[in-house]
Amino acid sequence: MRRILLVLLFIPFLISAQNIRWAKDGNSYFKIEEGEINSYLLPANTKSTFLSKTDLTPDGKTASLNVRSFYLSDDGTKVLIYTNTKKVWRLDTEGDYWVLNLTTKKWQQVGKNHPASSLRFAKFSPDGKKVAFVSEYDLFIEDLTTHQEKAVTSNHSRKLISGTFDWVYEEEFACRDGFQWSPDSQQIAYWQIDANKIKDYFMINTTDSAYSKIIPVEYPTIGQSPSPAKIGVVTVSTGKTEWLNIPGDPQQHYLPRMEWNSSSEIFVQQLNRKQNESKIFSCSPATGEAKQVFAETDKGWIDVFPFSNTRALDFHHPFIWLNNKKEFLWMSEKDGWAHLYRIAKDGSKETLITPGNYDVIDFLAMDEKSNTIYFLASPANATQQYLYKTKLDGKGKLELVSPPDQQGSHDYSISPNSKYALHSFSNTFTKPVNELIDLSTNKALNEKESIASKLAGTTPGKQVEFFKIKTEEGTEMDGWMVKPTNFDPTKKYPVVFYVYTEPAAQTVRDSYGTGRNRLFKGDMAGEGYIYMSLDGRGTPAPKGREWRKSIYRKIGQLNIKDQALAAQEILKWPFVDKDRIAVWGWSGGGSATLNLMFQYPDIYKTGIAVAAVANQLTYDNIYQERYMGLPQENLEDIVKGSPITYAKNLKGNLLYIHGTGDDNVHYNNAEMLVNELVKYNKQFQLMAYPNRTHSISEGEGTFEHLSTLFTEYLKKYCPPGPIDPQTMKVGDLYKK
Q1: For a disulfide at 41, which of 46, 103, 461, 581, Cβ 3.0-4.6 Å?
Q2: Using one digit for the tens of pLDDT, what is the confidence trace for 57-80?
Q3: How many angstroms separate the CA atoms of 680 and 250, rounded?
Q4: Rounded to two decimals, what is the model's pTM?
Q5: How many of the other CB atoms lie within 10 Å of CB of 202?
Q6: Over 60: is that where the pLDDT of 94 sits?
Q7: How many CA atoms lie within 13 A of 155 on its CB side?
């Protein structure tokens, strides 16, 4: 249920400052604009054309390449263009690659004998003489001088995968790019995933021809052993691979991180199957020997990436090296908060560099010359996000960098020399705006284009109210709500709760998009709904380890109880109509919706659940075992957390929506739940979207149909508008 890609479509808009590519020296940056690549020199931000459409037209072609992304060789003499892309599960990670020699202006297509749009993660060797890439599960190297191609592996099987990953590694660890060049260009380290023992889930395409087509996906459900993973190091000149001899049964461990320290040393992170033990090994590419240098444990689980997941969709999992690569940065919650540590590469010393009772949300950059580290945090408000800095040696004070008068969510893309940054900002009533700043002074390079200037004189839009509510058990939760237009506190209104509640995402964020429901056709406030959301324990808010890890083995129980107890307090508000309470969510939020409808049927009268996990035993092992343990050891927790267990309790109105081609939360969840509801004669409405994936976005007219269905169902079973408590009649203030 780490379904964050889909969740981000509906939870508050998370701003990002990652839409530029910094030059190596940090004094300029590149942007892809209108089919060209432009360069901007700082501090004046002077624009020049780096590659025009003419430059981007290979010999013999009549049209320029549509640049999805590009990469410069280390010496700056060549550029690798990624184009003609197509989607692999979540992202468009397959396509074609072309190399342009900037000196000779000569083009060559990499891997031109492979099928179109089949290359993945192509990258220059550090010396710029070769390009390595993955195609059809195998790793290849192409010499740019001789144009000769060499196959590193020749498996050609979706069950034996080299240089990239299987479905579950990609979905749950954000592992996609599965190989790295050595600093001296003589070797490549790469992952190999053996999915031969992983059972296939068979999706069925019944819409594209008269006969159905079976689409197998290697998918390990909770309780199944992991796909064995190993890391090999191939010597380019000989083609021989040396496998790293990392201790432990590969079928009981994961290898989510790998990074070269030097051409003679590779660092690898290993997680045990329960993901509550993490070890770091220093490995020899020559002999395969692996030496443990660091380890930690957690009573819950250990996050591979920053707990907030704000950057996890395409996270590279790098080791951050410092002190001439004698140390690396690491994030740990060992003292009860997410903090950054610097650790000697031999494990002999570790230093906490961000001490205090607050969480580091994400590391952004460091400047060793000034002994400074930059990171995101929000010690005072878990719904917001700011840039902070402190000293790299651990002896500094926590210093706020973001402007204190700009309250909301900030993000930064910091230049490699830590001299400049692209600063982005938004809050619930401010659309994302950005500025280029001098990081040393935190001032805009051009005052006329500063965020302060852009916001001056603007009028806040529709207000989203943030509030805190304490349950009868003493848990204090953050929430937001949007009240109806022309709200009258003497009348009673329906409430629509938006939920997610699981460790993959917060819904209560002070960022643009909060309070908006894209599925509702029209204006919820204008129609007369109170729209709100609450973040309970287990959500990835910067409130400390105990807040986040308290949900361990309790998904479907603790998070559901928190939501229901908070709702009970809200029902006491005089303007809330307890007979018109609705709840909806997608993915993990769909699961929460089902659990709330089934476990607390006297509170929630109407529910709309989209792409929900109805039975936790059907979901993938990495996510479900991380948060719920192993069914071989604590099956009762998993059964107790599954909505299907409580389906017999349904009293209200339920609309269940699922795509039959969902590779993430499989359609069998829907049919298992349908069987259980039928068994107990529970009436409900089901909408199955044929051959749609987890996003239910494919096919002409799909979103229009989905939003119409959502809106009409909500209006029918949870009618909008105020009720006068004296007459108990729905007023016509909101009727059109």
Answers
A1: 46
A2: 999 899 999 999 999 999 999 999
A3: 44
A4: 0.94
A5: 12
A6: yes
A7: 21
Alpha helices in 268-318 (DSSP H): none
Task: Report whether pLDDT(81) > 90.
Answer: yes
| Alpha helices by DSSP H, 491-609 | 524-527, 545-549, 558-570, 588-599
Give the percent of the chain with pLDDT over 70.
95
The residue with tokens 């051409």 is 263
Residue 601 pLDDT greater than 80, yes or no: yes
Residues making up the chain, counted from first to last: 736
Residue 14 and residue 511 in contact, taking contact as beta carbons nearer than 8 Å? yes
Residue of 92, 94, 116, 257 lying closest to 180 (CA atoms)? 257
The predicted pLDDT at position 313 comes to 39
Query: Mean pLDDT, the chain, as a whole number?
Result: 93
- Decide if 628 contacts 219 (C-beta within 8 A): no
* Mean pLDDT, rounded, for 220-240: 96
Structure-block tokens of residue 479 = 């929430």
Return the domain boundaries, the chain. 465-719
Mean pLDDT of all residues in 174-195: 96
Q: Is the pLDDT of residue 269 over 50?
A: yes
Cis geometry, peptide bond prior to residue 256 (ω within 30 degrees of 0): no
Largest CA distance in the chain: 87
Protein fold of 465-719? Rossmann fold (3.40.50)
Q: How far apart are CA 614 and CA 673, in angstroms?
A: 6
> How would you class 459 by CB atoms within 10 Å of its CB: exposed for 0-12, middle for 13-18, buried for 19 or more?
exposed
Q: Name which of 199, 121, 117, 213 is nearest 159 in CA terms.
A: 199
- List Cβ neighbours of 356 (8 Å cut-off, separation of 6 or more): 337, 379, 398
Distance, in Å, from the CA atom of 143 to the CA atom of 128, rounded to the nearest integer, reads 10
Summarised one tens digit per residue, pLDDT across range 651-671 is 999 999 999 999 999 999 999
Structure confidence at residue 726 (pLDDT) = 76
* Alpha-helix runs per DSSP H in 473-605: 524-527, 545-549, 558-570, 588-599
With 0-12 CB in 10 A as exposed, 13-18 as middle and 19+ as buried, what is 473? Answer: exposed
Q: List CB contacts of 380: < 8 A, sequence separation 6 or more.
A: none
Angstrom distance (rounded) from CA 717 to CA 548: 35
**Would you tell me how many other CB atoms lie within 10 Å of the CB of residue 682?**
17
